[in-house]
Amino acid sequence: MIAAVPYARYLGLIVRTDAPGRRAYVMPYRDAHIGNASLPALHGGTLAALLELAMQFEALIDTPAPRLPDPVDFTIDYWRSAGPAECIASARLIRAGRHVAQVQAQCWQDNPDRPIAFARATFVLREASAAT
């Protein structure tokens, strides 16, 4: 799944199964992910990408009849700075209808009880044959 998404490959995204039916999306640390070298802190865009990809993959995996999720709305709340370490995200499908899915996610580094950012997204679900 990751191999099919070039930006996920660029970020080095790894999918890990934490428990049955629960996936964690891990973005390994890379110097290229630093946005503020003086702190140092990860770039907010890499965190947003991690969260969006995690939500998109969850929508793809967890919808009753897998369909391709196209984002139509994305909101992120940054709670704290992310240091030079791997980031982990988890996402949860909130609702999936015939054409639209809502998903939420959070990411953290050392402790899931100290999240770095939260995100919510709405995806339009389209048939794979309509993707061409």
Helix and strand topology:
Layout: H1 6-11, E1 14-19, E2 22-27, E3 34-36, E4 41-42, H2 44-62, E5 68-78, E6 87-96, E7 100-108, E8 117-126
Antiparallel strand pairs: 1-2, 2-6, 3-4, 5-8, 6-7, 7-8
Describe the structure.
With 132 residues, the protein is an alpha+beta fold. It has a single domain, classed as Hotdog Thioesterase (Thiol Ester Dehydrase, Chain A, Roll). Helix content is 19%, strand content 43%. The protein contains two helices and eight strands. It has helices at 6-11, 44-62; strands spanning 14-19, 22-27, 34-36, 41-42, 68-78, 87-96, 100-108, 117-126. The strands form two sheets. Strands 1-2-6-7-8-5 form a six-stranded antiparallel β-sheet, covered by helices on one side. The protein is globular, with a radius of gyration of 15 Å. The protein starts with 5 loop residues before the first helix and ends in a 6-residue tail after the last strand. The mean pLDDT is 92.
The tally of domains stands at: 1
What structural class should be given to the helix and strand makeup? Answer: alpha+beta
Amino-to-carboxy terminus distance: 18 Å
Indicate the radius of gyration in whole angstroms.
Answer: 15 Å
Features:
single chain, 132 residues, alpha+beta, Thiol Ester Dehydrase, Chain A, two-stranded antiparallel ribbon
Give a brief description:
This protein has 132 residues and is an alpha+beta fold.
